[in-house]
Protein 1
Amino acid sequence: MPKRCSKDFRITIETPYPVPIANGPYQIEDSPVNGLLYVTSSTNKRLYVFDPVTALLVTSIVTNNETWGIIYVPSVQLLFVYTHNLVTNRIQVVNPLTATIVGTIVLPNSAGGVSNKFALCSSNNIIYAPFGSTVRRINPATQTDLGAIAGLVASTSACYVSSTDRIYATDGDGSVKVIDPGSNTVVNTIACAAGATNIAYASLTDQVFRSSNSASLEIIDPVTETVIGTTAALSDRAFEVYFRASDNAIYGSLTNVNKVARINCSDLSVTELTAAQYGFNGPRGIVENAADGKLYVVDNGNGQMSRVP
């Protein structure tokens, strides 16, 4: 009599990426509290909720305006989403566990601009949100606007540098403004290349990477607060830069050429991930999902989500 095989030969088939997500996806944030991803849209008045396990859209949350920058604050387990049109500027507060808006922070119309990256300061647990000529300070615990930090021209992106307890904000005058969260003032201006797109802090090597109109990224030393070099030239300028601690690398969205650049922060070697590999089409926002450790990229060109191992 033949023996029965006791082994389980079932095969798990993963959903092929990219997958449809929304029209005009712009930024993306991870919510460690439930493992879901939240995608803003520069063309729709919605925040989209995506499940990376099933690779399906879970729901969409109606907002008062188009959605742009977004940040998750662990201390309150809430998402803060910037909504903007030509008339109003607001930050809407979202509870990821209930997928509902639980608060709205009204900002002055003069705040202006499109904020695409907030910074969360660890020393005071305040959100620093760049809005054109100012950086607004947002208290996530009370959901209130604490006022503006002046001295900027056209800021859209900020990051927190933990080694020196400073906020770095890009500025349209070709500089990075250094903000002291203790005094909430601009304490230094770092001269950089023309244009200001995005900025990220690589904590493992204590470096700040800034994208500009150039095809390379500038590298800033937080100790001396000076530009100390650049990366090798990429295929195009990066519209988004994101630090991934798990592989100590900066990822840059090369939106115009449908690529994502990976810069090793240790040796500055560059690898470019292509559309042929991952289906990129106008890649924009990037985030790592804490639950599965994979990188997710929203494609503004075709409303899809790509995934990088």
Note: The two ends are 46 Å apart (CA to CA).
Protein 2
Amino acid sequence: MKMNDRNKSLCYLALPVLLLLAVSFIQPSLASAQTTSSGVDCSNINVASLLKQDNLGAGRILIECGIVRGGQPSAGGTVTEPPSPPNIRVSNGSACSSSSDVCGSESMVAGSTKDKGQTVVVNYNANYESSNYSGTSYSSDGGSTFTEIQPAPFANGHGENVGDPLVVFNTKLGMFFAGDLAGGCGGQGIGLWTSPDGKTWSTGACAHNGGEDDRPSMWADNVGSSATFGRMFISFNDFTVGSGALEVVYSDDGTTWNGPVVVSNTSTFMRDVQITGSPRGAGGKQSTVFLASMDEGGGGNATRQNVMYNSTDGGTTWTTVAMGSRFNPPGDGPCPSNGYFWQVNPIIRHMGWGEPAVGPNGVVHYVFAGAGTNGDTGDIFYTRSTNNGSTWSTPIKLNTDKDAQFKEQWMPSLSATSGGKITASWYDRRKATSSCVNVGDAGCNYERVGRQSTTNGATWEPSEITISTGIITQPSQNDPDVVGCYAGDYDYNTALNGPDNGGKPAAYVTWTDGRFSISGVPVQSVDFAKVPLP
């Protein structure tokens, strides 16, 4: 990493006024001779770049160099195990045995098309063993039960694993591909692992040998009639290029990766949100690839802009379309130790990021979070394109509760089937009757709530569905090796057209849950539900 001028870094952090106030909470400046446990020289780090990154490895460097504070012990409470089914605790391994562990958060789920969704894999962030921020679980019965693989399969093969999970099933190759940011791929690049059954994994390729990659996302073209059938795409931010260039790599066999293709490298930082694709590859045409991104306005509570990048030539070239106008972010204030990130109280950093999905007939969907009105600090919004991403509708609010203080919604996920059945889900505090300031406050508890469409997003079911079977206790973050302002940055869900669910399609939904406790302390775990479609 290049040595930055201290004054330049401080000027960068002082851009928004609220950001300047938040940065006043940062711990004392780093010691010039200090090194981290992984050998990084603290006098030679790019602080401005690291403060924008959301991976756990960047957070640990900032913690060990004294820039931000890690998780602190919190008071325990009386909590109960989540019931199952239909809510299944995915991160259920015995290796997570301390209340200071992150047992699971920030998840991505994939199902095998080879056995109609009977095999399900969830990749997620976890921290309970040395040099590994990764956890992986599988189900062989369509999500009725899960087994956490131990020792963690992605802790070996590509050096240190710093999380940001990926997982897809490639129908053409008949394999799961999963990945995380890994030290053995150029310093902090994208390492992959492969499995035919979700249970046994082999070390795969480095999809990108990067020195400072962040927040990758992945999609596989599983449309049999597409000219790019079997091609996989990974998008990410590369902080060795400009201010964090938005880049894409792609592969037809999972071994040889092409690129990176620079999608955006302007002075405006464009956050990678999620890459996906269209099933319009009929007749040998290439599927359209969509890459959702966000201009975060310099961080803090600055206004945001959703942007969609489209590629119709297999990821070689990209066009840009703005989705709607700028909007105010959800959340309650700056993260105490890093004011670039905005926070949903008490500890959840969230900038409004969402997830795209593609239905039939050239209809593309996107869901995101923004500020509400009348004192409501978070609502869920939906927009769609009916012409393959060329233009976008005016966003509508999906959550039907009235705007009011304490009734916060945030961090949505989205999935679509080829028949146009859409499931959006999010974290929801509509039942809160008091404020949320600290872990343990009753107003901090939440549910996982969703809303569905059977008309490819043209209309939505009149009311929401509650996916979690009970109120979720707000989990703590006591891990000193993970930034304190953290309970996962995203959850990427999926849908399968024909899983073993009475012959009906279903959405596979995962989220960060706090109903599992260790020593009376609610810890971050990953829960799963297979949600029937109406």
Note: The radius of gyration is 21 Å.
Protein 3
Amino acid sequence: MNSKQRLRARIVLIALLLAAAGLGSSLYWTQVVKGSTYIAKADKQYDKPPVSLFDRGSIFFESKDGTRAAAATVSSGFLLHMNPKLLSDAPNAYEALSHYLTLDKEEFIRKAERTDDPYEEIVHHVDQKTADSIKGLGIKGIQLSKESWRSYPANEVAAHVLGLTGQNSESAIEGRYGLERTYEDILVRTSRGSNASAFAELFSGIRESVFGNTALEGSIVTTIEPTVEKYIEKTLQTTADVLKPDEIGAIVIDPNTGEIVAMASLPTYDPNDVSKVKNPALFSNPLVEHVYEMGSIIKPLTMAIGLDSGAITAKSTYDDTGTMTLNTKKISNFDGQARGVINVQEVLSQSLNVGAATIALKVGKENFVKYMAGFGLSGKTGIDQPNEASGLLRNLENGQDIEVATAAYGQGIAISPISITRSLSVLANGGMIIQPHLVKEIEYSDGTTKKTEVDNTTRILRKETTDEVTRMLVNVVDTALLKGEIKMERYSVAAKTGTAQIPDPGNKGYYTDRYLHSFFGYFPAYKPTFLVFIYQIHPKGAQYASETLTKPFSEISKFLIDYYSIPPDR
């Protein structure tokens, strides 16, 4: 190639590069800088101020067989709006639209009269079929725009776990409660125009890489098993219909892994429509964010501390005097009656406060507090929910015998439901503290996945200790709880009830007629698949938890055994 040919080739190459640069610049200007403007002009049936369509990662439930169902997703449809300047006959327009939508006539006419405003919203979330019918009416001034929104296909199911999205101070949609908030950095999406082109997406990706947006977007798969969750919620509702508690809730957990297959609380809400919720506090998850004095379900922990520390053995006896005075304050059994010299098994079988206090005092304050801290009762579990509350054990740590004694049977200390569930799981799994969690897997948009990894390797109690406490709790179910009424011939079940007085903040004491009822149990007792915790606040018509929660627990345990085909152990 001679010099003239090389020069000619260079000129052609430079011309091509300039043309490409010009074309790229033009495309950038048209599709990125002015894209939304041209889209709005081109797509006349979506004639409204141009906005980006909402997008967000999904949240899934996963059934026991691995089948997934959307728990939170993005739905698409249309927004119906009007331009009052163009609407010539509002009454007739209302009548025509009423064949397809439920509209408030007075509000519709009122908006139609705002002729100085070219844009008035009428109805959100219009489906495709209805939108096609409305478009066919050809009403001048009535317009449709594409829109997308967060939706929860199962409505109220696991609402407190899933949470909500909402607008922040900059009008951007973000997670506000539950998993939506905890995994915001995974679920959030960069806004995209409703008709963004591949070229525009390319420049968007370049901008993200240049400016350091390296967060991995994705979707999450929960540990919630939808059939179990629905059954738990139905059982809670049936119980609430009879007893009218101020609040009722339950947790079903695998005590070996920390996976939560169900978590529910009533009253609840439908995250698809929160217009009827008057108090925003309803959106919070009380199983994680609230603390309560739990009562006698603490006694098995106290028994375990006594056994593990060597302060007592399973064959130990004590003189139950019915009452005890410590630091000038009197405590007593639930009925105030003395039992005399009895075996420590009766502390659990008869739920004796004096017996639990005796064991704790024999262990000693310093050692007792150390064990309670080991159960994690004063801290947080680290569950993947926002605003987790820490336990309130300050009374236990102030040094007085009376505080140690009352803490031994679950009064004077306040603990969240998820915290007590984790602590009781130590008894069920052979002595290990677990990490409760609600997400089992993250699926990133780049095709990679990440399994939830938790540390369940910290030992709190000796295996021999938990075996002994389990044996004692099985004895409670077989012989003492409702006189053995819920004993299962082919399955061993370890369980304990709790009835706690509710603090009266006005009088710096306790209400005399209000109680918190709690119940926990695990099965099969010596190699458990599940632990179930239930509580309710101020149920009406019954004083003791054995009267109100034994039946719901029995129904839940039988359902789980059947649903998961759990083999018998005796």
Note: The chain has a mean pLDDT of 89.
